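Ticket #4471: structure output looks truncated?

Reporter: J.K.
Steps to reproduce: submitted the chain below (289 residues) through the standard prediction queue, then opened the result file.
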Amino acid sequence: MADFVLSCCSTADLTKEHFQQRDISYICFHYQLDGVDYPDDLGESMPFDKFYAAMANGADTRTSQVNISEFVDYFTPFLEQGKDILHVCLSSGLSGVSNSAENAARIVRERYPERKIYIVDSLGASSGYGLLMDKLADLRDEGMGIDAVRDWAEAHKLELHHWFFSTDLTFYVRGGRISKVAGVFGGLLDICPLLNMDNLGRLIPRAKIRTKKRQEEAVAKAKERQAEREAKRAAEAEAEAAAAAAQAQTEPTPDTAADDSAPADETAAPEETPADEAQSDDADTPQHP
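Returned output as attached by the reporter:
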């Protein structure tokens, strides 16, 4: 069993059963529906079908992040059990939750100085964020420790590519992202905005495309282009590594260089060297096992 807690926010959009199966802990965001507060507890307090039906019928919805006090209360039981914590947050480009988690981590580190509490900004969201958590769970289950898993997450989190599109402009209008007039004409023309996340974890509009089918084709082409770029980078890196290895084989080793510079008459008596100079030369010579 792992000696650390792998944790994330409920916004990774995995099911409760999936979190339990993968042994991933999570902390719940919050939302309001027509002024009533609910935890984002993966459909337990309100089934998803009722939630989306309420939104479609015009319910007023708002979301709120986890605050510092909630994070402290969430982290503390794990630390009391002697567990280290790796918590991966929703993108800082979409929410301030990573700041709350970092501030809470500073508080609990003072209380439990012997424990490790790491906070990673995923720079991702939704199912892409969930894919990252699944991969980290795989690494943990393979025996990787908390430091190595944290380092892997930081090194590879931007390798996830998030693409989003919507066939309904209603909530873009309600959220103030587009005007009512643009929403009306966009709906009449069946325009769907295509968005993705940049390297700062922000959701960026990339194109306005008519019909869902064309959106799906555009996403597929974007994935193909990205795969081609990554294959090209991998091939270039492999070629550079091969060239470096070939160059290393042609360069003389220190032992070979010493043999080449030896006197032609190897039977000649070596010159006497003062003890202090001999010691200095030995100190600068690589010691081979």
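Triage note (M.O.): checked the attachment and the full token line is present. DSSP finds eleven helices and ten strands in the chain.
Status: closed, working as intended.
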